[in-house]
Structure formats: structure tokens, C-alpha cells
Amino acid sequence: MHNPIKFYTTQKQDFEKRVKELKHKLAISSSIRFLVFLIAVFGIYFFFDTTRIVIFIIISWIILFLFLILRHSKLQYKLDFNKKLLQINSTEIAVLKGDYTLLKEGKEFIDTSHFYSYDIDLFGKGSFFQYCNRTVTNEGRKEFAAYISKNDISSVEEKQYGIKELSENPKWRQQFSALGSMVKVEYSTRNLISWIHNYKIVFPKLLAVLPSVFSLISLVLIVLVSLQFISKQVLLVWFFVGLGVSGVFIKKVNTLYKYANKAKDTFKQYYKLLNKIENATFTSKVLLEKQQQIKTETEKASKIVAKFSKILDALDQRNNLIVGVLGNGFLLWDLQQAYKIEQWIINYKDKIENWFEVIAFFDAQNSLANFAFNHPDYVFPEIETSKNLIEAKK
């Protein structure tokens, strides 16, 4: 029989060490970025009169700086991820010692008309929900509340086997929870699904090729200017043409962005959870059935959702001055991303709800599995179907 406290303590010590190491790496990464910036500034200053060298320095600096930013972001993500895992294990230690006051009480699920949940204080301060709930998504929390409120014994043995299987894989459960809690989602998936299902096409098919052709011409013009084959005025005129084309669709893009920006955090969270579910190995029928629901004929659901998340992030870069001005002037940036978003919605709007339901299911099941793991001496009850449960004789 395993020892939950010992497991959580070992995990906590391990993640404390990892957090310390990652903080050190991040400090070095920040110093390197600053050093590269200084070198670029001095290089431009010393070769200011030589256009070709200055352009080479700027392009080299941008490429290197973007690489360093990407590397720094990955380190920051690892740090945040390990902090979440550290927090999860610290919480479990506290709960097993009797302190679970910081966990959500589930007051919103209190129903005085329910036939048993109110009488046994299933929800609220000091409730079973507060003690057991470890969900990290809004829909998962609702799913868990609904699950423990049902008086349903159908396929109970299969359900118990699924919970038992998850309980025996605490590291997978913790990683799932850490991934899910990395992003705070404010926009409900119900509203998100409604937006996707009811979306109407507004961008012309011309945008399938126009941004790519325009970007290619921009690249050619930039090269020609750097080689001094054409004047800078030609490039400047082309830049304003790009801004003009982008301006034609500005209202439509702004409307799309209004909703896409709300969806961004949800998809950033959910594709990682889908990937975690897809790559897990399950044996119980109930878990395998749910895992099968997110499999498609061509591509993994996690990859499909990840692509959409990246497109949404790319559109969000319009708030960046460089991307918003130069990106739209030379690359028709907003139009590229807007068209991609539309095409994604057309292709997958009928599947997204099913994928979200699977995530909510596993999120809810993790809470019950965690309860089982924390109490290894508890047993899974057997349902007795015979009419006479207690026989008494006078």
C-alpha cells in the first residue's frame, strides 16, 4: 500500500529543486538578451554610414533576438509549470493534514430542492466537494458537481475501474492539472462553442492567396532596396498600399478579433490537455471510450486545436506596434490570420464541442481518482442488486 504523504513530500522536494534551477537559467537568459541588444546598438552606431552593414546588423539582431525570446519563453513556461506542480503537492500535503480551507467550496452548486445533496452538505464550506474537488477548468468543475449529484448506479463497476486506473497514475494527473491551471480562462466554453457554431463567413476567398503573394513581393522589394537596385520610395509606396488593403477589412477584422481574443486563452489551455489525454495509455473501458472520442481520421485533435491556438495568438500580435504597422504594411498580417481562423471554424465547428466534453470528463474524474489515491485504505463499494439487503428475524 502506497503512502500519499511520502509521495507528495518527495514530489514537493523535487519540484523545489527544479524551480530553483530554472530561476537561475532565466536570470542568465535575461542577461544574454541585454548583451545582444547592446552589441546591436553599438554596431549600428559604428557603421551608421554604411547602409548594407546596418541592414545586416538589424536583420541579424531581429533573428537572434526572436530566437532568444523564444528560448526565454520556453524557460519561463517550464518554471511556471514546475511552480504549479510544486503548489499541487503542497496543497495535497495540507489537505491530508486536515487543512483544505483554501479550496473552492462550490457554493454555486448548492440546491435546496435536490433530493439529497443539501441534506448531506455536499456543497459549501467544509463539504465533500471542497475536500475532493481538484478540477482546473470551469466545465470540469461543473461536470464534477453534476457527477456527485447523480443517483446513478449504471455501469458502476466500469466507472470504478476507470477511477482506480487514474488513481494509480498520480504523476499523470498532476501534470494534467498543472497544464490546465497554467491559463486562467474567463470566457465560458458554452459561449465559445455558440460563437463558433453561429459564425458567418465574411472574408472573400481571394484572401487565400493575396497575403502570400503580397508578402513575397514585399520581400523582393526589401532585398532590392538593400542592394540599392531601387529607391526606398518604391518600398515606402508599397508599404502604404499594404496598409490601405488592410484598412479595407479593418471593421471585419476588429469584429472577429473581439471574439477570437476571448477564445485565445481557452484554446491555449485545451490543446495541451487534449495532447495529454491522447498520449496516455488506458485499459479501462470508460477511459478508452472517452479517449477514442478525440481521435480523428487524419490528425490528432490536440494538433488541430494547437494550430488554432497559434493562429489566435498570431492575430493577437496586431496589438504589437511592429506587427500592427509593419506586419500589415508588408505582410497583410491581420488578413492572413483572419482568413485562417475562418477556415478553421468551417472545418472543425462540428467537432469542438465533443472535444471539450472529453476534457471536462477527465478533469472531473481526476478529482475522484485523487480522493482514491489519498485514501488507499478505503474500498470501492460493491452494489448489491438483490431485494433483501438486511434480513431480520424476531
From TrEMBL:
Keyword set includes NADP: no
Transmembrane region(s): 26-47, 53-70, 206-227, 233-250
Keywords, alphabetical: Membrane, Transmembrane, Transmembrane helix
Keyword Disulfide bond among UniProt keywords: no
Gene3D superfamilies: 1.10.1420.10
The protein's name in its UniProt record: MutS-related protein, family 1
Source organism: hydrothermal vent metagenome
Organism classification: unclassified sequences, metagenomes, ecological metagenomes
